Fold this protein.
Amino acid sequence: LIFIQTNSLEQELKDNLSLKYISVNKQLIPFGLKIYIQKRIPVAYGEMTIDGRTIKGFVDANGIFVPKEFISPNSYFNFSLTIFGWRESSSDELAKILKMNNKFDIEIDEINISQGGFISLQEKNLNTVLLGFDSKHLDTQLKFLVEMKTQLKNLDIFEEIESLDLTDPLNPKIKVFKP
């Protein structure tokens, strides 16, 4: 028991089992280890590509990918949100998008991340929403998205919108269907 390195054991279990939290404590009386585990709760279906291979799984509220094999086979999830092209470098951005999606009147069906890191959304009423590569503007872009959806909802013109381009938050563009 003395030779067990709890920190490295915790990190190995966290990485290999995709756990949110784990604590391993040595206990002398009674002799043994106490292990506390908190699993990740999926909020979206996700796919990532590694070496041309698609890996299916889930994404939690923190934007962390959980491979399908780490979820109990008895679990049933019916997600309205799908994330394609998940990448570890996009976890923080995904967490912000997922938080905004749950908090406001935004209904994102799909998040796409290209190999180069370009993020686009499919929103129920606004159709395609382009966010782009630059994550330093994401907070501003998401505020604009909420504000623009509210204003457009008040004008009742959703049927005419093809896409919303927020790649340059100082110059947002709305593309409408032309009859």
Observations:
- The mean pLDDT is 86.
- The longest strand covers residues 19-27.
